[in-house]
Design goal:
Its EC number is 1.3.1.21. By secondary structure, the protein is mainly α. Helix content is 62%, strand content 7%. Bound molecules: NADPH dihydro-nicotinamide-adenine-dinucleotide phosphate.
Length: 451
């Protein structure tokens, strides 16, 4: 045990305030309404810009202003397709069956504010592998058009959006009327805010079928690399080859997605699963926003190919892969040290940490530790910095002429910065003076020396 770990344990005086904010006034309700209205509109504008305005979001916005937003929306709104809707319904069913029945490792999440320690079955990697084997195998055997998803993108956009909204409504209804763990529920007093931020922390069917774990990972993240494959095939069908930019961004996405499923056990202890409630933000966000926005680079490249020089390709690969290495190592270190209760080395030295306690709403006290060495001693969210390095490299494959394919990088910068604020507020309520001590020892939030 290090000397830092011997820091005195300070009483937590306000034990049950470390979950999501409990109440919401008009300001938060209006904020929630604006986000729920604006983000789907943004997603549709991206599609319109890609289809009609050569990938220029500025040109699409100018046209919307010139024509008037209502006429513009009616003229360009994506069309419903029964085929796409049925295809998406089949997709959801297939992923639900894989989630429910494939063998996997039993793992534990983080203890909830209500004191529950939930179990999850991590079988995502197998589900991902089988799904890809079926689609890619089917393409090589000429049973499936590899560009099928790309060609039905318009109808799929309508289908995923509809499902995302319906799911968020159902989640709110379930949270109010049939909660799985009522101690972990948050009812803010504002229906709009509850819709956005969620009511239940861990909504479940029965004991094991976890709504949030399934929807956060499976329909959206399994689809991510399949969508990439399909747009790469679309590019091939259009121009007779796949560009190096398309290959590089697809490799970055592939690494990110496989890493996610390979470490699915770790994912149960991240903010999404441990702390965020299941509302529109996660339900619509993970089923709709994620597969549509995170794949913008391949959607762009398939229609408007970018050619990179060999030097540019190597530089992007080195930068993106370095980002991945830091990302994985930082995320690994926290779990590794906590699992060994700090009795281990990092970077060849005994690990340094602050030992702390927190209390759950059942009044029980639990031990924890805050790591102050390794990546967690470089900055308080070095894993976010590494994520942004990867995001930068992914977007840079599209060149610097258009804003649209860079949406992912700008979105991630805002998301992760805002997430760090939210997380630190919660950690402060949970760990009190120990968190303040951590901030003193590790003064930078994300990028050392800058922020
Ligand atoms: P983290 O995995 O960074 O977890 C934050 C939690 O870690 C805190 O709430 C606290 O939880 C614990 N913690 C904080 N400081 C320390 C410390 N010094 N030592 C030990 N534990 C500490 O958060 P996220 O879930 O946001 O991120 C996980 C990964 O997912 C990141 O790499 C991020 O970049 C990525 N991500 C990707 C997104 C995407 O859309 N592509 C979206 C969001 C995240 P506790 O209560 O356990 O103490």
């Amino acid at each position: 045990m290090s000397d830092v770990s011997a820091t005195a344990i300070v009483e937590i005086t306000n034990p049950t305030t470390w979950g999501r904010a409990g109440t919401a006034g008009w300001d938060k309700a209006i904020g929630a309404f604006l986000i729920v209205a604006a983000v789907p509109t943004w997603l549709h504008m991206n599609w319109i810009a890609l289809e009609q305005y050569e990938g220029s979001i500025t040109a699409a916005l100018k046209a919307a202003l010139a024509e008037g937003p209502v006429t513009f929306a009616f003229r360009h709104f994506p069309q419903f397709s029964l085929q796409a809707l049925l295809g998406y319904a089949f997709w959801l069913l297939l992923q639900a069956v894989f989630y429910g029945y494939l063998p996997g490792t039993l793992c534990y999440g983080q203890r909830t504010p209500g004191g529950h320690l939930l179990t999850y079955t991590a079988n995502g990697l197998l589900a991902w592998a089988i799904t890809h084997a079926l689609y890619i195998g089917g393409s090589f055997l000429d049973l499936v058009d590899p560009a099928l998803i790309a060609k039905h993108w318009e109808g799929l956009l309508v289908a995923v959006n509809t499902y995302g909204f319906v799911l968020a409504i159902l989640a709110q209804w379930k949270g109010y009327w049939a909660p799985s763990f009522s101690e972990d529920r948050k009812i803010s007093g504002s229906i709009l805010f509850d819709f956005w931020a969620g009511v239940e922390l861990n909504p479940r069917f029965g004991k094991y079928w976890d709504f949030k774990f399934f929807h956060n990972g499976r329909p959206g993240i399994v689809a991510w690399t399949l969508i990439d494959f399909s747009w790469a095939a679309y590019q091939y069908q259009q121009i007779g080859h796949v560009t190096s930019s398309m290959m590089i961004v697809s490799v970055f996405h592939l690494i990110y997605v496989v890493d996610f499923f390979y470490n699915e056990d770790w994912y149960t202890r991240t903010i999404d699963i441990s702390h965020d409630h299941f509302g529109f933000m996660l339900a619509w966000g993970d089923t709709t926003f994620l597969p549509c926005l995170y794949t913008l680079q391949v959607q762009y490249l398939a229609r408007y190919p970018t050619y990179l020089t060999r030097t540019q390709s190597i530089a992007l690969l080195v930068f993106g892969l370095t980002g991945y290495a830091i990302f994985r190592s930082a995320n690994f270190q926290r779990d590794y040290v906590r699992a060994r209760d700090g009795k281990c080395n990092l970077w060849g030295k005994p690990v340094k940490f602050i030992r702390c306690k927190y209390t759950t709403s059942d009044g029980k006290e639990h031990n924890s530790l805050l790591l102050t060495s390794g990546w967690w001693g470089v900055s308080r969210h070095a894993n976010y910095m590494a994520d942004l390095m990867q995001a930068w490299a992914m977007c840079a494959t599209c060149g610097f002429t258009h804003f649209l394919p860079w949406s992912y990088f700008f979105f991630m910068s805002i998301l992760l910065y805002h997430r760090s604020l939210r997380d630190e507020k919660r950690c402060h309520s949970k760990y009190g003076k120990h968190w303040e001590e951590y901030c003193k020892q590790v003064p930078y939030r994300i990028v050392p020396g800058i922020i």
